[in-house]
Design a protein that fits this description.
The protein is mainly alpha-helical and 121 residues long. Helix content is 42%, strand content 7%. A two-stranded antiparallel sheet has the order 1-2. α2 packs across α3. The protein is elongated and about 55 Å long. It starts with 16 loop residues before the first strand and ends with a helix. The mean pLDDT is 89. Bound molecules: zinc ion.
């Protein structure tokens, strides 16, 4: 199901499928007829990768001013992982889901508290 998802431009299937929501309730969901990705229909739409690039640079400024370091290499690794895991796909990932993933990935590379990261998302 995940094959080529990051390069897929996504096109809604003509029919919807019954799929469980995060709370377990079944609802009709559109999905992509090319790669099978399920469209996120929650109200908090996902943000494009550029949004998180911005967040990282704001976080970098903040950390730099406090004598910590967030290098270009770390930033690249964070963004690569975020994208590779499919979180930049705004068709299927909600903003809240992206935020959770972003915080988790950033913390793998930088020793900084969750609250600080959230301040910059
Ligand atoms: Zn698709």
């Amino acid at each position: 199901m995940k094959i080529n998802m990051e390069y897929c431009l996504h096109e809604n299937s003509p029919k919807k499928d019954w799929l469980p929501m995060k709370n377990g309730v079944l609802r009709l969901h559109p999905h992509c007829k090319k790669c099978g990705a399920v469209k996120d229909t929650s109200s908090d739409a996902g943000k494009k990768l550029g949004y998180f690039v911005n967040s990282l640079y704001k976080l970098k400024l903040y950390l730099d001013s406090r004598g910590y370091k967030l290098s270009q290499a770390q930033i690249r690794l964070i963004l690569m992982e975020f994208e590779k895991e499919g979180y930049a796909d705004i068709y299927s990932v909600s903003f809240s889901h992206q935020k959770e993933a972003f915080v988790k990935i950033v913390r793998k590379y930088v020793k900084v508290s969750e609250d600080v990261i959230r301040d910059f998302i």
